[in-house]
Amino acid sequence: MTGSQSRAGRPARGGPLLTGRRIGAAGIVLVLAAALIAFGRPHHSSSAPAAAVAPAHSDRAVPGVPVEVGADVCGAGWNGGKAGEQTFALWDNSSVPVEVYLQNVDTGKVYFDAEGIGVDVTRSFNAVIGPGHYRLYCNPSDGDGLPGPTVDVTGAAPSTTTQAMAPVTNGDLLGPIAAYHAWVTSRFPMLLRQVRALDVDLRRGDTTAAKRDWLAGHVTYETMGAAYDAFGDDNDAINAMPATGIDPATDPDLHGFHKVEAQLWGGADPASIVPAAGQLVKAVSKLRTDFKNERLNTIDIGLRSHEILENAVQFVLNGTDDAGSGTSLATLDANLTGTLAAMKPIRPLLSTRDADLAETDRWIKRSQRLVRSYDHHGIWTPLDALSTRQREALNATISQTTELLSRVATITEPRGAAAR
Amino acid sequence: MTDQECPFGHGVSRRGLLGRALGTAAGAASVSALAFVGGAAHADETSTPPSASPGAFESTTPDRASYPFQGPHQQGIITDKQRHAAFVSLDVTATTRGDLQDLLRTITAQARSLAAGGTPQNAGLAQTDPDNGIVGPTVAPDGLTVTLGVGASLFDSRFGLAKQKPARLTRMEAFPNDALDASRCHGDLMLQLCANNTDTVLHALRQITRVTRGAMQIRWRQDGFQSPPRPSGTPRNLLGFKDGTANPAATDASLMDQLVWTKGGGAEPAWAEGGSYQAVRVIRMLVEFWDRVSLLEQERMFGRAKDTGAPLSGDREFDTPVYDQYGDSISYSAHIRLANPRTPSTDDQRPFRRSFNYDNGVDPNGNLDMGHLFVAFNQDLERQFVTVQKRLIDEPLVDYVSPIGGGYFFALPGVQGSSDWLGRGMFA
After folding, report:
1. 3-class SS at B146?
2. Looking at chain B, which terminus has fewer C-beta neighbours within 10 angstroms, N or C?
3. Rounded to a whole number, what is the distance in Å from the CA of A411 to chain B's nearest CA?
4. What's the 3-state SS for chain B?
5. Pairing mode of beta strands A151-154, A132-140
6. HSE-CB of A311 using CA atoms within 13 angstroms
7. d(CA B56, CA A290)
8. Short-list A238, A269, A270, CA closest to A254
9. What sign results for the dihedral spanned by CA atoms B397, B403, B408, B411?
């Protein structure tokens, strides 16, 4: 981990407002701009009249049936053919990058999503499809969706086909993201109450109460989906992780919960912790204000459903974010709660698309049961007190759950215009 | 590992060098049917078509492109050693008998497909890519063998398997010269992955652990590599000595029947037929200390010449050692003399070794952490490995080597038929 990552607490995936996955989308915009500047092509770059005519310029070295796609022509060169594995050499013969679906016209389901094919670029995509009516559907980056002609695929059904899915669109996610924003917003009064109580406890010199209120506040915050820099700089002030090799109690660059934790559990004089606690209260108030105006991206809700636990595997299960309280398992429990909260608004989208949703829910429940078995009336077993077998069971359960949750992010990744 | 960093690594120069090495190695191999020599001919396996006759593999042929997955025995036991290996001890986290069966079926399916290779299908929109892609869009078998063993702890009360435990399977004992680290010992399962290249080993490891996350977890792991012959004959260990010269010949099927393959029935459960007891020992070598020991003393400890590998009683590597009664040329405490006294009564005590070198990093004192990943397959652990190991107690070499981990496992019988799976017999 680099210094800046450890300082940030929840390492950024590409900065405060762009996670690694979001960068992909931004990259497409940049490619588009570059394409317009470099080529300045008119929008009409093709005159291919019908699907049956093979495109003239696709790169023959790319495997697959040469097919022309783009802003004006979609699917020229593909005539259907036999059921089974089909490989397409998709050539963007227009002036803008294009996203291309292979869609079953009868079901509306999509077999591949060829995203961001660049201008004059040929790329290979394949799918195993059964007999039926299909089309390619083009989403040029600057225009409306362009359905290609419907073609017949004939012959015997293959034993297995590529798993198709109705794509989730930006529009599908607007409601859920608003609901999730409202849920996170609703957590702030409790969080503020808890960190203020912590502050008061310390001013009174009551370390027992302070530890209790620290844990309550930290657990609340850990339900709120701060994984991988979701709250940007505000998170650094609230929940930055201890840096490797530096005493967190005295680290001048560490602020927030873990600073207070290190001092409180390290036996510091309560009065000496008051500045750190006061800073934490301020930081939470600031996040509350900032969050009101923060517009979450539609991609965020699926990402958080997956990444809260991904983050927990990386930092909580490794003990990295423990500054002395030994409450990693309480954090994990909060992360599981936060995962369910992020998933809640997108469940209707998942229930028709994720064949493993019930399995995912089973593993989340199993994780909760296991983690909560280490809660002894508010006293949590520290990670390092687990036996090898207990630790293996914990790692297995959380990792398997995370493995399944990765599907949620993939399924709810907003794709193109509505290919319905 | 060192392979890739070496200036004569992959590329043009390697083939030239190995071509020459092959010429000399062939001569050595003709003296004795030694398994190790195969490692010399490290041709570009991706251009080598899969062999149609797996049984007819000669030790001097280039790296095998693939090994058949099915058969009475698992691959990776008497199979010629590949250059790269991972030994992964796992504990089962599945809690029911049914889930354990699912785990074994999943491992079998994954191993079967990895050993055959192929092009993974488009995963569709609902999931991430099921193949990690580190060996490219088409997975070549690349000489991969997946060998699964079970440890004594699998037969505790969890899965109702106590009565099915192989008769000689025990928890590895600590021998007098051992310095075992509990975190690097034992395990419910031993997954041995061997291939012609490191990326293929890691590809298999990631594919298998990914589809079994909830059901098993890695307890400890040791990767290993096999050196090429320097300059010929048996590859060397990291003390600089040829290691494994006297290994029983894998090509001698009747010998393998006596020394390697466990027989079902009698003391053993019927399902154990065709399996083999595996001793894995991570043996740290104190190489800095060793390098400060005179060549004379080193050779005396082994009983062999360091340069040629010949017994001190002979001229050439494969000369039969002569153990004279006064211990003049090969001392009574020499490693080879203790390990293999070459008497009729000790012949059936020989284990079949399939060891690798390992290289882990650096100690706080600045010494290099490297050593020997000792692997031996046995028909009967007690009669073979344990007996030999006890003869070696307090041998002079113990000052320079330190066993720090490992365990005993029973390598399961092979998978026979497309619906069979590893360990199925345990549940009969």
Report:
1. strand
2. C
3. 5
4. CHHHHCCCCCCHHHHHHHHHHHHHHHHHHHHCCCHHHHHHCCCCHHHCCCCCCHHHCCCCCCCCCCCCCECCECCCCCCCCCCEEEEEEEEECCCCHHHHHHHHHHHHHHHHHHHHCECCCCCCCCCCCCCCCCCCCCECCCCCEEEEEECHHHHCCCCCCHHHCCCCCCCCCCCCCCCCCHHHECCCEEEEEEECCHHHHHHHHHHHHHCCCCCEEEEEEEEEECCCCCCCCCCECCCCCECCCCCCCCCCHHHHHHHCCCCCECCECHHHCCCEEEEEEEEEECHHHHHCCCHHHHHHHHCECCCCCCECCCCCCCCCCCCCCCCCCCCCCCHHHHHCCCCCCCHHHCCEECCEEEEEEECCCCCEEEEEEEEEEECCCHHHHHHHHHHCCCCHHHHCEEEEEEEEEEECECECCCCCCCCHHHHC
5. antiparallel
6. 30
7. 72
8. A238
9. negative
Q: Do the beta carbons of residue B392 and residue B401 sit within 8 Å?
A: no
Contact, A297 vs A414, CB < 8 A?
no
Instruction: Identify the pLDDT of residue B37.
Output: 23
Q: List pLDDT tens digits, range A163-190.
A: 999 999 999 999 999 999 999 999 999 9
Distance from CA of B223 to the nearest CA of A (A): 21
Average pLDDT, chain B: 87
Rounded CA-CA distance B25/B28 in Å is 5
B-chain CB neighbours of A160 within 8 Å are: 121
Q: Look at B125 and A165 and tell me if their CB atoms are within 8 Å.
A: yes
Chain B hits for A64, CB-CB cut-off 8 Å, are none
Q: Where are the alpha helices (DSSP H) in A20-159?
A: 20-39
The interface predicted TM-score (ipTM) is 0.86
Residue A370, pLDDT above cutoff 50: yes
List of domains in chain A: 39-166 (2.60.40), 170-411 (1.20.1420.20)
- Give the integer Cα–Cα distance in Å for B247 and B33: 10
> CB–CB of A163 and B127 under 8 A?
yes
Across the interface, whether the CB atoms of B93 and A165 are under 8 A apart is answered no
CA distances to A160, A384, A394 from A387, in Å: 43, 8, 10
Tell me the Ramachandran region of residue A19: left when phi exceeds 0, alpha when psi lies from -120 to 50, beta otherwise. Answer: beta
Query: What CA–CA distance (Å, rounded) separates A378 from A330?
Result: 9
Contact check, Cβ <8 Å, A388/B219: yes
E strands, A179-309, where?
none
Which of A163, A165, A361, A401 best tests the B interface by mutation, with the highest count of B CBs <10 A?
A163
Main-chain phi, psi angles of A397, to 5 degrees: -70, -45
Note the pLDDT tens digit of each residue in B217-242.
999 999 999 999 999 999 999 999 99
Given a cut of 60, whether residue B354 has pLDDT beyond it is: yes
B251: nearest Cα among B19, B40, B57: B57
Which chain B residues are Cβ-neighbours of A167 within 8 angstroms? 125
Candidates A167, A388, A396; nearest CB to B125:
A167
CA atoms within 13 A on the CB side of A279: 21
3-state secondary structure of B343: coil
Rounded to a whole number, what is the distance in Å from the CA of B216 to chain A's nearest CA? 7
Q: What is the pTM of this model?
A: 0.86
